[in-house]
């Protein structure tokens, strides 16, 4: 299946609609099978790679993605991360918001930090994944979108004020972050990632509105996608049905959508773009049963998706049996 997915990502026609993911998809069962503790996987390349490969090893789902959190780049810029050592299966969080009091503090000098934080560690994890399961799965590198990253490092209250009073300064900051993220994504690709997923959760038009998305997030996404090596998947959250025409302008090779989107409308709007989605990661994959998962897969296929993806990162407690049913 790896070769078919690579063909799909390169723009070739294939006969199937494969199930895989470019978002985080580790499971409690997979972690247990490798003797791993979730919070320890974020700061150890070997443990990160083992955790990422564990889902494939238990379920056969032909993909593995690192990092296992969305905060690598924010941490490299100076954000302090809480890895939730006191919570068994919780994702990390940014411990302190407002690293930059004003978007004007984000300059070329303040983001020359490619060798800081965990970026190299993630590259090492990608290399280990390629050695371990690279012949069987597609290996993905995941980065946040520029607007999402800005939300993680800026004083959000001041940022919203500046979006009204100093919109060009916000745009300039987003474009600088796009260039930084492109360097990170390129490093992941050079380390062996088969594709890059841009997980722009905070920058979705469903959350900031179509007008602000078109003004701020879209130009930054377009620059990032232009600078990243192919193939590039853009993942957005929320009901973006009314903004599909904007997403079609990003230049992404594929768009991943969640369960709130009208897939039939998405298929019509994204004629020249691969469409991935859109199984509900909570109600269907985590809390549902095998029959409900199978029904959701059928609906997505009938709507015309090119590949079956979860609509967002998997809940860590997602049963392996449901991941098998997704296939």
Helices and strands in order:
Layout: H1 2-9, H2 28-33, H3 45-59, E1 63-66, H4 72-76, E2 81-82, E3 93-94, H5 119-133, E4 138-144, H6 146-153, H7 156-165, H8 167-191, E5 195-199, H9 205-208, H10 210-227, E6 232-235, H11 244-247, E7 254-256, H12 263-269, E8 274-279, H13 290-303, E9 307-310, H14 320-326
Parallel strand pairs: 1-4, 4-5, 5-6, 6-7, 7-8, 8-9
Antiparallel strand pairs: 2-3
Helix pairs in contact: 3-5, 5-8, 6-8, 7-8, 8-10, 13-14
Task: Report what the structure shows.
It is a single chain. The chain has 327 residues and is of the alpha/beta class. It contains 14 helices and nine strands. It has helices at residues 2-9, 28-33, 45-59, 72-76, 119-133, 146-153, 156-165, 167-191, 205-208, 210-227, 244-247, 263-269, 290-303, 320-326, and strands at residues 63-66, 81-82, 93-94, 138-144, 195-199, 232-235, 254-256, 274-279, 307-310. The chain has a seven-stranded parallel β-sheet. A two-stranded antiparallel sheet has the order 2-3. The mean pLDDT is 95.
Which features would summarize this protein structure in a list?
single chain, 327 residues, alpha/beta, seven-stranded parallel beta sheet, two-stranded antiparallel ribbon, 14 helices, 9 strands, 45% helix
Q: Please tell me what the overall shape is.
A: globular
Largest sheet: 7 strands, parallel
Could you give the order of the helices and strands?
A: HHHEHEEHEHHHEHHEHEHEHEH
Structure annotation, total helices: 14
* Multimerization state: single chain
Radius of gyration: 18 Å
User: Which structural class should the secondary elements be placed in?
Assistant: alpha/beta
Low-confidence stretches: none
Number of strands: 9
**Amino-to-carboxy terminus distance:** 11 Å
Strand order of the largest sheet: 1-4-5-6-7-8-9
Mean pLDDT: 95
């Amino acid at each position: 299946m790896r070769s078919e997915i690579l063909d799909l990502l390169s723009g070739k026609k294939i006969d199937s609609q494969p199930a895989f993911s470019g978002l985080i998809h580790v499971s409690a069962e997979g972690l247990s099978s490798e003797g791993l503790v979730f919070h320890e996987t974020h700061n150890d390349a070997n443990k990160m790679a083992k955790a990422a490969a564990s889902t494939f090893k238990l379920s056969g789902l032909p993909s593995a993605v690192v990092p296992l959190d969305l905060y690598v780049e924010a941490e490299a810029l100076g954000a302090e991360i809480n890895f939730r050592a006191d919570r068994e299966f919780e994702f990390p969080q940014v411990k302190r918001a407002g690293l930059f009091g004003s978007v004007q503090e984000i300059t070329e000098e303040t983001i020359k930090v490619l060798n800081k934080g965990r970026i190299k560690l993630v590259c090492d994890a990608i290399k280990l994944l390629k050695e371990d399961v690279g012949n069987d799965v597609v290996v993905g590198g995941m980065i946040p979108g520029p607007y999402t990253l800005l939300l993680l490092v800026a004083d959000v209250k001041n940022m919203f004020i500046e979006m009204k009073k100093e919109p060009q300064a916000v745009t300039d900051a987003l474009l600088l972050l796009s260039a930084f993220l492109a360097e990170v994504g390129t490093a992941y690709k050079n380390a062996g990632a088969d594709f890059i997923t841009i997980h722009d959760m905070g920058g979705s038009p469903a959350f900031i509105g179509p007008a602000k998305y078109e003004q701020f997030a879209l130009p930054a996404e377009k620059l990032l996608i232009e600078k990243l090596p192919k193939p590039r998947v853009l993942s957005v959250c929320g009901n973006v049905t009314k903004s599909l025409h904007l997403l079609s302008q990003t230049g992404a090779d594929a768009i991943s959508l969640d369960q709130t989107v009208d897939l039939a409308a998405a298929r019509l709007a994204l004629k020249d773009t691969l469409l991935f989605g859109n199984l509900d990661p909570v109600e269907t994959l985590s809390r549902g049963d095998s029959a409900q998962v199978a029904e959701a897969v059928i609906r997505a296929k009938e709507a015309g998706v090119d590949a079956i993806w979860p609509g967002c990162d998997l809940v860590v407690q997602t049963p392996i049996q449901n991941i098998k049913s997704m296939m």
